[in-house]
């Protein structure tokens, strides 16, 4: 029996569910693109879902939800697909954006919003499937992420950009390369969600990213930013094992 290479590629997706969205105002193309997305997910062994919207406004009215993959028609209605992509990028630098367009001259603009690919209409099924599978491969290499809600809305943090997480009373502060944010969530709950990642609990009040460690001295960890974080006895053995495994992986 032939082994499906894509099943190996996407095996690391875990229990998370990939969320895709199609924003297209032509009903026939909506059905076509939704079908291609779902079939490519199935072929790739991905647990995922696809939602369809007829306009940028309809998508944004949903409250700016977070998706992994956006397949956007550039020529939408009042708000264009390009303008929608700019709004997406204000909230999320990591999502994959694919454009469908009638005009090749729009291609250069597509890359201004870091689009991964573009498709020229009339759409070719083979090209669409190839673009989708490339997108899934790209997404599979991305780190996992957490989505947290505060008064400003939902913020998405990819594991790779987090330096450390600090708990203060009923809130946590996520410290990352793009600044920090405060959220009402229990550190114990975050610890469970982050199990198996490089984000490790080292203290009652701290979770740190093993990739962001500058040095380890006895009971103190110095992070890239210079922040010194204590390691308590309760978490020391667990941290030492995780850090040793990380260092061994880096040497391979």
Secondary-structure blueprint of this entry?
Elements: H1 5-9, E1 18-23, H2 27-44, E2 48-53, H3 56-61, E3 69-73, H4 81-91, E4 96-101, H5 107-110, E5 117-120, H6 125-140, E6 145-150, E7 153-158, E8 162-168, E9 171-176, E10 179-183, H7 187-193, E11 199-203, E12 206-209, E13 213-217, E14 220-223, E15 228-230, H8 233-251
Parallel strand pairs: 1-2, 1-3, 3-4, 4-5
Antiparallel strand pairs: 6-7, 8-9, 8-12, 9-10, 11-12, 13-14, 14-15
Helix pairs in contact: 2-6
Domain Response regulatory: 19-136
GO molecular function: DNA binding; phosphorelay response regulator activity
Protein name: Stage 0 sporulation protein A homolog
Describe the structure.
It is a single chain. The protein is α/β, with parallel strands linked by helices and 252 residues long. It folds into 2 domains: 5-140, Rossmann fold, CATH 3.40.50.2300; 145-251, Beta Barrel (OB fold (Dihydrolipoamide Acetyltransferase, E2P)), CATH 2.40.50. Helix content is 34%, strand content 31%. It has 8 helices and 15 strands. It has helices spanning 5-9, 27-44, 56-61, 81-91, 107-110, 125-140, 187-193, 233-251; strands at 18-23, 48-53, 69-73, 96-101, 117-120, 145-150, 153-158, 162-168, 171-176, 179-183, 199-203, 206-209, 213-217, 220-223, 228-230. It has a 5-stranded parallel β-sheet with strand order 2-1-3-4-5, with helices on both faces. Strands 10-9-8-12-11 form a 5-stranded antiparallel β-sheet. The chain has a 3-stranded antiparallel β-sheet with strand order 13-14-15, with no helix packed on it. Strand 11 (199-203) and strand 12 form a beta hairpin. Helix 2 (27-44) packs across helix 6. It is elongated. The model is unreliable at 1-15 (pLDDT under 50).
């Amino acid at each position: 029996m032939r082994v499906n290479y894509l099943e190996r590629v996407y095996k690391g997706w875990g229990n998370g569910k990939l969320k895709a969205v199609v924003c297209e105002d032509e009903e026939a193309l909506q059905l076509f693109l939704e079908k291609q997305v779902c079939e490519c997910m199935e072929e790739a062994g991905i647990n995922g879902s696809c939602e369809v919207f007829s306009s940028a406004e309809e998508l944004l009215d949903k409250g700016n939800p977070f998706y992994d993959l956006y397949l956007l028609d550039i020529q939408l209605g009042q708000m264009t697909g390009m303008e929608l992509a700019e709004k997406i990028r204000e909230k999320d630098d990591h999502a994959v954006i694919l454009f469908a367009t009638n005009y090749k001259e729009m291609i250069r603009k597509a890359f201004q919003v870091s689009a991964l690919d573009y498709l020229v209409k009339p759409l070719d099924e083979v090209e669409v499937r190839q673009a989708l599978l490339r997108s899934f491969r790209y997404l599979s290499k991305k780190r996992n992420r957490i989505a947290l809600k505060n008064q400003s809305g939902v913020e998405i943090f990819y594991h790779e950009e987090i330096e450390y997480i600090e708990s203060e009373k009923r809130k946590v502060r996520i410290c990352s390369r793009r600044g920090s944010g405060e959220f009402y969530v229990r550190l114990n709950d975050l610890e469970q969600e982050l199990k198996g990642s490089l984000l490790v609990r080292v203290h009652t009040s701290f979770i740190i990213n093993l990739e962001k460690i500058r040095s380890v001295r006895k009971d103190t960890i110095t992070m890239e930013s210079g922040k010194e974080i204590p390691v308590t006895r309760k978490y020391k053995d667990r941290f030492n094992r995780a850090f040793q495994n990380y260092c061994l992986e880096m040497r391979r």
